[in-house]
Amino acid sequence: MCRSIKTLRPPVLPEEATEEEIRAAALQYVRKVSGFRAPAAHNQEVFDQAVDAIAEATAELLAGLQVRGQGQKASA
After folding, report:
1. Is 56 helix (H, G, I), strand (E, B) or coil?
2. Which residue of 11, 25, 54, 62 shows the fewest CB atoms closer than 10 Å?
3. Torsion from C-alpha of 25, 31, 37, 41, nearest 10 degrees
């Protein structure tokens, strides 16, 4: 786990994760997996597509999670 990626669901976050927080976590994940902090120009498009896909999957995950004791789904 990348140490700079934080938990984005209640009760760890007092409120729902913002789009910015979700995208930042996705970016950190792609950086970690690819080994690039910033990709070369010829890899930029695929790098950005990966960040978008992971951010979308993360938002869907957070929207579908049921957090114990909250009686409702957590949402992104």
Report:
1. helix
2. 11
3. -110
- Rounded Cα distance, 60 and 23, in Å: 13
- Residue identified by tokens 């990966």 is 50
Count, residues in the chain: 76
How large is the greatest C-alpha to C-alpha distance in the chain, in angstroms?
A: 47
Nearest to 75 by CA among 52, 38, 25, 61: 61
Chain segment 18-72, per-residue pLDDT in tens = 999 999 999 999 999 999 999 999 999 999 999 999 999 999 999 998 877 765 5
